[in-house]
């Protein structure tokens, strides 16, 4: 059965635009995932269908109200018998990374709530068992771009979405036994461009040598740019041709 992803947002068109292109679209076409968007403004009351109000105690900005979000969550949850893993996008959440993407890719249903304005009424947090996720230490204007980043990272991990060669595990952050490494440099035609040549080893046809070179490059790049990704004591240093 496809992974079901529900996304609650005030901007469904913005979310739909991203899901309709590239890998997120292919994942749905291949039957690995189903997207269901809902606008929680549809659950708001009154002529103005307000979803936000001024904060008690004062202060700048508006706060998302409980009612429309509680109503939307209950309604959307009941649209499938599987109970969703609830994801709340917020800079106050646990930091998203490839391990979290793998965790989410193993669920059978995910429901994302995208906030806007200055934040949520705290009782939205209290009423549900949220997995609160942040995509980084910066403030976006809403949860949509964060939810879409998470969805993109998750759906590319679903079985059958990428072909074997492009399989997510060979790309950045996943060189298997070599641990978490950044991607090695890649080249395509032509062999020479404005004086810059493709390294000879890649033209040699020696698969063993090519693999060794790539791992060495990945380790070097990781050591230079993201030493925090390497295990304490550093990555196993690939043999560098001295024996
Ligand atoms: N909403 C606003 N900023 C965010 C962030 N950095 N991560 C997740 N959700 C957010």
Can you walk me through this structure?
By secondary structure, the chain is of the alpha/beta class. The chain folds into two domains: 3-155, Alpha/beta knot, CATH 3.40.1280; 170-229, Trp Operon Repressor, Chain A (Orthogonal Bundle), CATH 1.10.1270.20. The protein is 31% helix and 17% strand. It is built from eight helices and ten strands. The protein has helices at residues 12-19, 22-29, 66-77, 98-105, 122-126, 144-155, 200-203, 207-225, and strands at 3-8, 33-38, 52-53, 63-64, 85-95, 109-113, 119-120, 131-134, 192-193, 196-197. It has a five-stranded parallel β-sheet with strand order 2-1-6-5-8, sandwiched between helices. α4 (98-105) links the parallel β5 (85-95) and β6. α4 (98-105) crosses α6. The model is unreliable at 238-243 (pLDDT under 50). Adenine is lined by residues 89-91, 134-136, 138-140, 143, 146. Residues 89-91, 134-136, 138-140, 143, 146 line the site of adenine.
């Amino acid at each position: 059965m496809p992974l079901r992803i529900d996304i609650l947002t005030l901007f469904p068109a913005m979310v739909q635009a991203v899901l309709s292109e590239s890998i997120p679209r292919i994942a749905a076409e291949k039957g690995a995932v189903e997207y269901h968007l809902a606008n929680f403004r549809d659950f708001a009351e009154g002529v103005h269908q307000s979803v936000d109000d001024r904060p008690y105690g004062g202060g700048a900005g508006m706060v998302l109200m409980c009612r429309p979000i509680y109503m939307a969550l209950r309604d959307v949850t009941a649209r499938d018998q599987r109970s969703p893993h609830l994801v709340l996008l917020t800079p106050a959440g646990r930091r998203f990374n490839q391990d979290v993407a793998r965790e989410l890719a193993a669920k059978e249903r995910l429901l994302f709530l995208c906030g806007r304005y200055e934040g949520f009424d705290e009782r939205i947090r209290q009423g549900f068992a949220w997995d609160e996720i942040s995509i980084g230490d910066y403030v976006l204007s809403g949860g949509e771009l964060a939810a879409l980043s998470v969805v993109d990272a998750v759906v590319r991990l679903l079985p059958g979405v990428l072909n074997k060669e492009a399989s997510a595990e060979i790309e950045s952050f996943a060189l298997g036994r070599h641990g978490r490494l950044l991607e090695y440099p890649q080249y395509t035609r032509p062999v020479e461009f404005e004086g810059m040549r493709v390294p000879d080893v890649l033209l040699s046809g020696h698969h063993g040598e090519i693999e060794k070179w790539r791992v060495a490059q990945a380790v070097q790049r990781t050591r230079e740019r993201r030493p925090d990704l390497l295990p304490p004591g550093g990555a196993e240093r690939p043999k560098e041709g001295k024996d």
